[in-house]
Amino acid sequence: MFRQHLWKLLLSLLIYIWAVAELIPLQDRPFDQYLQAQVQADPAAFAALMKEAQTREAALKVQSVYVPLRELADARQIDLSHFFPQIRLEASLKNVKKRNGLLMDEMLRRSKGRVQLGLDLHGGVQFTLEVDPKALAAMTADARQQSLNKAIEIISDRINGLGVAEPIVRPEGENRIQVQLPGVSTRDNPEIASSLRKPARLEFRLVEPGTGAFDHDPGPGAVPPGYEVMSTDEDDRTTGATITRYYIVKRLPEMTGEGIKNASVQMGEFGGFRIAFSFNSAGAKQFGDITTANVGRLLAIVLDGKLYSAPVIKGPITGGNGEISGSFSQRDAFDLANVLKNPLALPMTIVQQNEVGPSLAQDAISSGVRATIIGTALVAAFMITFYTTGGVVAVIVLAMNILIIFGVLASLGATMTLPGLAGIVLTIGMAVDANILIFERMREELALGKTLAVSNQSGYLKALWTILDAHAVQLIICAIMILRGTGPIKGFGVTLAIGVLSTLFSVLITGHLIMEVLTDSGWVKRFTMRRMLKDLRVDFVRYGKPAAIASVTLVLVSFGYVLYQGRHIYGIDFLGGDTISLQYSERLDTAKIRESARAAGIEDINPSYVSPIGGGRETLDIETPVGKGGAMLAALQKDYPAAGWKQVGENHIGASVGSEIQWNALIAIGLSMLTILLYIAFRFEFGFGIGAMASILHDILMNIGIFVLTGHKFSAPMVAAILCVAGYSINETVIVFDRIREELKINPSGSLKDVINTAIRKVFARTIMTATTTFLAALALFLFGSGVLEDISFTFLVGIVTSTFSAIFIAAQVFYWWHKGDRKHVEAHHDIAPKYEWTGTSRAAQ
Question: How far is CA 794 from CA 291, 589, 599, 724, 775, in A?
């Protein structure tokens, strides 16, 4: 028996050990302490250098030794990798400054906790970028707005290329862009600021005929009209010294990089890195014409006015591809490729750089964590109560599932936000669904007289394809959220996709391994399972029509109210708002600020404490709906007069969920429904796909309607929460459909109505059990959470109820009506052969 299960045991251990390793360290470690602890060579010399750097740190009034240590090492040409021989750098990279940059970045990464926290939990950094007014002066108002929107899109793409998860990028005023990056500090990452504002104007210029590289500046007398002298620095591969080469380059470019379609980093032939790029069709033709006409000449590659290389055109380049070679570190190469793919047309400067404190108060963070623990405990208690031994196994599997989720999030460098934590809680509730499905199948097998070991295997096999189908459809929705979504929508998609895959592994591999060992060895001889409900004798098809009519009526009424409310249903994320900056003499917890806002009738606010980088007085910035800044200040002055409030600034901020993101969310919903239709039509039958689409549409509209009817405002996390509900809805629907398909095979003489009723009766108890576990997890968030957690959990609670209802009274009924209640109509469109099953006679004690 042991040999039979060895591969599952080894695979499970390998995965869980990897997850634990990825989570270490759990918290950030002070960078200077981490460096000193990691020194393996010449510790005395490094200690002396660190002492100097710390003195410089205090003088510069910065809060990290990163910058002063790099500056000292670079100025004295000290190779810091000497002190850390365990960090292997490129052997071919001799330039000391670049080696120090790579080493310090790697040490900084290793000093950080593996799971990074978002702006709401930990804070981060905020930049304000301003477009050069001269560049906007000649534009019309519409053109100016379009240019600003395009710049926001480009900066968002660049940040995604930097690997920063769930950023906020939005307009501020008429010519500014605000960028908030969670878990990031410019004290430790000074390169981030410069990478955001680069225009990335790529030019291809010809070098003067008959000339090449000069070892010295040829001087103005050697430069013909229309040309200029440009230089590039190259690293000597033997000594590491920097050598400057000079070229006489044409001032006007032959072409620019506007035709570039993509850019990527590749290893150079002799080590180092290069940037490979490809043109679109128009750019490829132009580049081919230029290289064909200038074979043998040097072609200078200039980015933002800087010469990077000047290779010889050895022949016509008509494939639409090129490359930029030079003395690049890996990070420089990736940054350059990133800006090439996302070139800014407008010049920008950074006018403000601030460190931003967490937007949620400590009590709100604590309540969210507490709600997560309570929700998990409720699910565990429920499973053990109703499934005893199986419940204990499910709880163990659930713990392993959570371990994998956090391990993968850590390995991906994902940012954990409170809404993301809510998504994990929902995953916890849904994860036990697969266990319940297997256990309920086992109950049926035991009732037929099979042994416990046989019932375990048979129940597992019968539930296997149902579990795979349900989770496959959820993965489809997650993939669309990731591909089409941005910010929290994309973050939700990533978290849920990880949860779906980890659930499949932990339940189907680890969980099944434990159950096999317990039952096959005879260690467990009884498998007690309690019921919430007895078998019902209800004609679900009969009551389907009035139930569907009543439900659709409620959907129409509630959604009509949504249309009536119009823009009033949106919060700051969608509409933008005002930000007031306040000075104070007494610092208040942000929870008290939110209480004052609610008392004044201002529901949607976002307070955070902001400190200017480089020194300056901390201020309280409060985002409010448009026109509510004055009311917010008045409320604080009334409730906390001793705090000495003084307004020092006010700005209008644009929506963080712009029209493009809203449009992408709608596309995501449409693509989800279409893909689900195609998948279910392929795996089941077209009528099942129509039923699934109707069920999802019903649940989405019902959730939106009830959400607005109860006075809630739409925020960015709410879009993701509703898409999560769509995933849960299709999960319930697939399970009902799978049982209908099975009944069609094993009940060859029953009418379609009888088949549907029988299938629903068999899964009804399981459906209620699953809904209860997920409901308990969401209820804990609703009761013990606060702020955005309340909104998200409320959506989950409504979604659980509507999804359970729609799987039985919408999806199954639409399938019945689609086939006009005729079983022959189903069989004409799908090959469903009857299946006969003979069962054993041995019985396990219960």
Answer: 62, 25, 22, 13, 10
